[in-house]
Specification:
about 140 residues, mainly alpha, single chain, 4 helices
Length: about 140
């Protein structure tokens, strides 16, 4: 059963991961070793999508009518908002540390930038999915 759940999760995220890798591959194939500007554009697009999802959910939480929750309170809403902000801050630190870890083998080579960016793109895609699954 655990294997089935893992396979289901991988299939769910594989399309998004494939899309991110496709953008990365496009830069490498088109520009070769001179792909810095293209990779920066791909990174900027990914970061913008992540920030857009974060800000949209932040706005949704901020404007949510907590009285729709059973026995909801302003304190609960404020706690959720603070937790969401803190969680995103900690997640960004986790993403950066994790991507550095998995890119270690490429440090000092011309492939380091691509390895690091590939990880960041995949992590951003997963995070956007996580943010979109937060229900109020």
């Amino acid at each position: 059963m655990k294997a089935y759940a893992l396979i289901s999760l991988l299939l769910l995220f594989s399309h998004h991961a494939y899309s991110a890798q496709k953008s990365l591959s496009h830069c490498i194939e088109k520009y070769g070793e001179n792909d810095d500007e293209c990779l920066e554009d791909v990174n900027d697009t990914s970061e913008a999508a992540l920030n857009k999802a974060y800000e949209a959910k932040l706005k949704e939480i901020s404007s949510f009518d907590y009285t729709r929750w059973w026995r909801g309170s302003q304190e609960q809403k404020d706690r959720m908002l603070a937790t969401y902000k803190q969680n995103q801050k900690e997640w960004l630190q986790y993403r950066n540390n994790y991507c550095e870890l998995v890119s270690t083998q490429a440090m000092g080579t011309h492939a380091f930038g691509e390895a690091m960016l590939g990880c960041v793109l995949n992590m951003n895609t997963l995070r956007i999915d996580q943010i979109n699954k937060i229900r109020l």
